[in-house]
Amino acid sequence: MKTRRITLIVLILLTVLFIVDVRYFGSRSLKEPSVDFNISPGFRQPEAHKSQEFVRPQHDITSLYLKGRHGVVELSSAEGDEIRVQAIIWSDREEVLEVVEVKESISGRELSYELSSDLEGEEVGLGFVVEVPDGMEVTVEHQFGTVRVEDFLGFLNLDTRFANVNLNDVEGTLTIKNSFGNLNLQRIAGPLQLTNAYSTCTVELLPVDGGYDFDIEVVNGSLKHNAGFQVNIGGNNRVGAQGKWGEGVHPVHIRSNFGSVVVNIDK
Hints:
Helix content is 10%, strand content 61%.
């Protein structure tokens, strides 16, 4: 709990300093605003941990929901029709691990994993190593840690806070809501909807049939790109961008507040 309080105090101080800078010195950077957050929540080595493994045939399951915190989530697609989930629980005390488990549940066609209980006054972390069949929808809710997705094909929804997010070779439909954690999206192919706050975000898109339709707004931050769309600098530290690359079939919708955004196409 002490670690969490210190982290929150530091982030509040950073936010206050940034607001003061924008309010009193914002006119200096109206044409080329630059905000670079380097928030690294990290993941400290736990005193004790245990793991649970789950293997389930996909059958009629179309979506997977993971809720973690203070840990690492690793996700990828794999050949076959099995959903494989390794859940790693950690705590500073062995006694806590004896009473905490990961709950597996099925509701309709959705399979989900999360902690079965939340012990008051105890800091318990949960991370995952997951492989799913191609084409599945996966939702990850995670805070204070790291999320890594690589070689994924399907529908991906991320809701992250105070977490570093790294994606590489993701194809499909991608929806991200992120705050207070840096985003690094590499080799992304397909529609993207991103809501971002207090973080640095880098997006590298792969060329795809049909192209992209960009709709981007950055408030109190900066926008750089090589995608050829038109950038409009407005009042109140707002930067907007619209335009198409190719036929403009796949929407790329980005909203960012207090942070920097880089959008490139790997041509």
